[in-house]
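To: structure subgroup
Subject: Chain for Friday's discussion

All,

I'm putting the inputs and outputs inline so they're searchable in the archive.
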Amino acid sequence: MAESKSKIQSIREWVVDNKLKTVGCLWLGGITGSIAYNWSKPGMKTSVRIIHARLHAQALTLASLVGAAAVEYWDHRSGAKAERYAKVLHDNTFSHKE
């Protein structure tokens, strides 16, 4: 019987397979959240709000890139990436019958 994956394991695999989408979504969510937060503060100029949102999103992007690099490093060290590619290659290999 095959083991069912935990929610965290399936999320981690998705992040490994879609690093750029993850970083892009985090950036978009970060800048949106930061703009919403800064707009709730009265007395700030619009240009200052936009600059703060950009800085917050930039910091979040750097953090997510470091996280993606850490996941990639961990996969490389543990050999999980090689196992995953071997499984994909094995599943996609066609057996030719003569």
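Points worth raising on Friday:
Residues 1-43 form one domain.
The radius of gyration is 20 Å.

D.
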